[in-house]
Every structure is written in structure tokens, then in C-alpha cells.
Model the fold of this input.
Amino acid sequence: MIELYTWNTPNGQKIPIFLEEAEIPYTLHPVNIGKGEQHNPDFLKINPNGKIPAIVDTEGSDGQSISIFESGAILLYLADKVKKLIPADPQGRAAALEWLFFQVGGVGPMFGQLGFFKRSQPPNEPAIERYTKETKRLLAVLEGELAQREFLAGEYSIADIAHYGWLRGLERLEIPLDEAPNVKRWLDTLTARPAVERAMQKLKDAAA
Ligand SMILES: N[C@@H](CCC(=O)N[C@@H](CS)C(=O)NCC(=O)O)C(=O)O
Done:
């Protein structure tokens, strides 16, 4: 059984989407980051970095319980465990990992900073300009890739799941997808997947 600690944010959406897609049973434990619950001592035992998402797999490889934090590490652990949503051939696997790391090292931090500075008062114009420019650059990279194939690593994988919440949130950051029609097509495809719908609904319900 997977114990999932998360909240309805772009990083927090990744793991429930994976679990729904892979049809793995799980219990969702909401960690309300708006109320600071990520700093509770019990949660810090699972993620000393005090951020969602995190999981506890009560049936690790040696039968022991294992806890994991960092969304990229969790996605990779689960994909390898159930052999789903990661290409089996070495080349496809490398492509999935490339785009997974691109997301956790680039898209997440840059889009995240843009969101932070857009909400900050007084406005910090140089920061908004810097992160807007970098967000648009990363979006153009993704557009170039998705113009060539349906999904980031060829087949639907953890690389796509990792990007979903971040790309979905771009309109709110006033970055329209008009100039990224392939990203828009990809986003609509993922949004229409029943597993994605279920995950998003469960997150909403958990936050209600
Ligand atoms: N690199 C981490 C980032 C996790 C992260 O930044 N989570 C945010 C929500 S999207 C969070 O927990 N924020 C609360 C805080 O920073 O106190 C991952 O990919 O898991």
C-alpha cells in the first residue's frame, strides 16, 4: 500500500496521477501547505526538506516500509517498481529521464519563481522579467519537442506526468499557449485522460 502525502499543487499532482494511471491502491493524506503542515514533526520524518509530495511504501522491495521524497525520485521509484509509464528500452528510458530531470531542475523551479514574483508585493520587475523570459524559453523548448512527437519520451510516461501541473498553470501566470499549439494539444490530451481527471478530483476533494 502506498501512503501518499500531498496537496493540490503542480508538484503535488504528479504522484496521484501516476498512481491512478498505474492503478496502484493508495491512501491520500492531505498536507495543507497553506497552514504550514509540511513543517509538522511527523511529516519531517518522511521528508526532512518539509515539502510535498512524499510517499511511504509499506511494501518496499525487502518487505520493509520505505519513505521517499522528491517528486522525480518518487515517480522513478514507482515506475520501476510496477514497470509502467517508463519505456522499457534503454534509449526510451534515457529520454524519459532526460525530460523528467528537465522538469524537476528547470521547469519546476523557473515557473515556480515566476509564480512567486507575480504574487509578491511590491512588484520586483527585474525578477518578473527574468523568470518570464526563462519560462517562455523553456516553453519553446517543449513546443519544439512536442511538434515532433505525441509525448515527451515518445510514449506516455512519467516525463509527461511530471510536466502536467506546471504547464496547466501557465495561463494563470499570464503565459498564453497561443504560440505553443503542440503543448496545448498535449495538455488537452492529458486533461482528457480518465486517470488524470480522477487524480485531480481526489486532490480537490482532499483540500475541501
Ligand atoms: N523538488 C521538490 C519540490 C517540492 C515543492 O516545492 N513542493 C511545494 C509545493 S509545489 C511545497 O511543498 N511547498 C511548501 C513549502 O515550500 O514550504 C519536488 O519535486 O518534490
